[in-house]
Amino acid sequence: MSPRRRARTRPNQSRWPRPAVNTETSDLVPPVKPVRLGNINVPVPVVLSPMAGVTNWPFRVLCEGYGPEGLYVAEMVTARALVARNPKAFRLCRFAPGERVRSLQLYGVDPVIMERAVHMVVDYDGADHIDLNFGCPVPKVTRHGGGSALPWKLDLFTELIHRVVGVCGPAGIPVTAKIRVGIDAEHETFLEAAHIAQEEGCAAVTLHARTTAEYYGGHSDWDRISQLVQAVDIPVFGNGDIWTAEDALAMIRQTGCAGVAIGRGCQGRPWLFADIRHAFEGSDRREEPNLGQVGRVMKKHVRMLVDFYDGDERMAVHDMRKHVAWYLKGFGVGGATRRAFMDCETLAGFDGQVDQLDQDMPYPQAVADKPRGRVRYARKVRLPQGWLDSRTTTHEERQALFGADPMDASY
Q1: Catalytic residue ranges
Q2: pLDDT digits 0-9 by tens, 1-28
Q3: 222: enclosing H helix or E strand
């Protein structure tokens, strides 16, 4: 398939080749206003944060179906793999026909490779919005200078954003950036990074209010979100420890952020976006599905995954395993049932296990507001040798970084 210039044929699918809450005031609804990102209007400033292995189009469709007209961002796609035309990268770039805004997150360390990847997005009419990943804390990324380690190098960070915005601007694609507070308490980067993002033309910035060293442990520091809101003129989305709709309200009220980004809180709970929609409308209605209703969501999810994997039931059912653990969290189904789901290989086998669940088991309130997914601190932040010695990169550092991009052409 040869690339085409940006012809607007929406809502058709893109042309990628196939292969802590203040309870005293929690009943007050803060003012929530639409956010404008370039030519994209976000009526309700709620974002599904990109999560690797989670926010492919089936999960995005589920969340958007429950939620308000926000942004539902695809899982991270690596620029090098996209440039190499890796089939999995193309799969991750697919959007369902009904997605209102096609939001794509890109990751890379080499500004030239990132620029080439963004040109491909434009040529294939592959997205309406691009988010840049400067928030990933995992060692395999940070030890090569990527993710949340990259803003420490101001020259590299600036050049990367400059090149991406330079391609996206003429195409009418707004660019945003996802960042963390910094590498650790002694090496904070968020204020400088946000100012650079603003100056280079980013439409908004999302702050996960933890350092790399904090990983996903403890509670995120919402005061840092407040600080950033005061420091920049572009919209700031707050991210970190939003487990309930009340948390979303509290973050906006306490920080003044333009909107919220939801990550781990929606794992196994796409209906969290319905709760947030109700809360922003001033309603106290909340979704509390019993196990039978959750089972129906699971069946819908796995069938969309079959489509995502081009009819491969085995791949879809295997991918669904992590979601099953999240969907069943708190329900008293027993270890044998959970293990049986892990042994499923076909859609029929999966359906059979869902049908055996106690359809009337009530929603587990005990875990409704508890953390989900990863909760630990990083054992040690992995960085390139001598990374913290200077805020700029040397020629030798760049050669080492770009030749050893951790997210290479393979997946």
Answers
A1: 136
A2: 334 333 333 333 445 555 444 444 444 5
A3: helix 222-231
